[in-house]
Amino acid sequence: MITARSLVKHYGDFPALDDVTFDLDDARILGVIGHNGAGKTTLLKIMAGLIAPTAGSLVVDGIDVTRRPLDLKRNLGYLPEESRLYETMTTDAYLAFFGEIYGLSKPVIRERRDVLLDSLALEADGKKIGELSKGMKRKVAIARSLMHDPDLLIYDEPTSGLDPMTSRSVLDYVKSLRERGKTVIFSAHNLFQVEEACDLVLILRRGKVVANGTMPELRETFGSLTYQVFFRIPDPAAFATSVGYSASDGRYLAEARSVEELNRTTAALAADGATIERIESHYPTLEEMLLKIGR
């Protein structure tokens, strides 16, 4: 269980975080999003015990992170946006090195290393880390964060700069960690990934929490279900209707915000000579929410 209360962080006179409060149950994935400069990385660093807040409290599984950051790190896996790896080492040696740092025995190191290499589709082929692709390096960094089998994982942009296939592989792996009882907090600019993977989403704007909840809760906050009616018209120049619609690249679209309005819209369009092609339900996306919030 994570409990954050009124977290504040100032860099000089600049308020990077301002009264950030939220709760997160175990075995959940929390996505932290916002425009550049919203305070995402600052929040993740505070949660990882790397920097101290100016004010407020953060308790993780009974550990007061502001007072006992070292106790937290024993059960924490942290992945910064830019991972600095020991590029002259092989993947095997690198993971074994960090296993030793965490005090693991050689049999446990071999077992966990083999499981992680297999799970992340990493081949220990003797290459040095510096010879690996960016995607493979990212997977090595994720494996490193898991060598000591922590319950809390904090990942800053885990799929940043990866190709679509590697990005999908990493995201699927992050989702699988929840099924193993891990709690994951990650930030991402890829909002589709956040929508897909996260149980809860925290939206920051200029260091403040502007929204926090599940995707259904956020959709209700920023606009509920709408219906999109796509239709064709035989002669656009002569088409006249009382229904408001938009046109783009030969496509015609009308929107309705209730079933009753949808019925009126489709009936009016049909009476005016339009042919209904399809009707789609539409919830506001995280991208649309951020646009509404503004910078």
Automatic annotation (TrEMBL):
<dbReference type="InterPro" id="IPR017871">
    <property type="entry name" value="ABC_transporter-like_CS"/>
</dbReference>
<dbReference type="InterPro" id="IPR050763">
    <property type="entry name" value="ABC_transporter_ATP-binding"/>
</dbReference>
<keyword id="KW-0813">Transport</keyword>
<keyword id="KW-0067">ATP-binding</keyword>
<dbReference type="GO" id="GO:0016887">
    <property type="term" value="F:ATP hydrolysis activity"/>
</dbReference>
<dbReference type="InterPro" id="IPR003593">
    <property type="entry name" value="AAA+_ATPase"/>
</dbReference>
<feature type="domain" description="ABC transporter">
    <location>
        <begin position="2"/>
        <end position="231"/>
    </location>
</feature>
<protein>
    <submittedName>
        <fullName>ABC transporter ATP-binding protein</fullName>
    </submittedName>
</protein>
<comment type="similarity">
    <text>Belongs to the ABC transporter superfamily.</text>
</comment>
<dbReference type="InterPro" id="IPR027417">
    <property type="entry name" value="P-loop_NTPase"/>
</dbReference>
<dbReference type="InterPro" id="IPR003439">
    <property type="entry name" value="ABC_transporter-like_ATP-bd"/>
</dbReference>
<keyword id="KW-0547">Nucleotide-binding</keyword>
<dbReference type="Pfam" id="PF00005">
    <property type="entry name" value="ABC_tran"/>
</dbReference>
<dbReference type="GO" id="GO:0005524">
    <property type="term" value="F:ATP binding"/>
</dbReference>
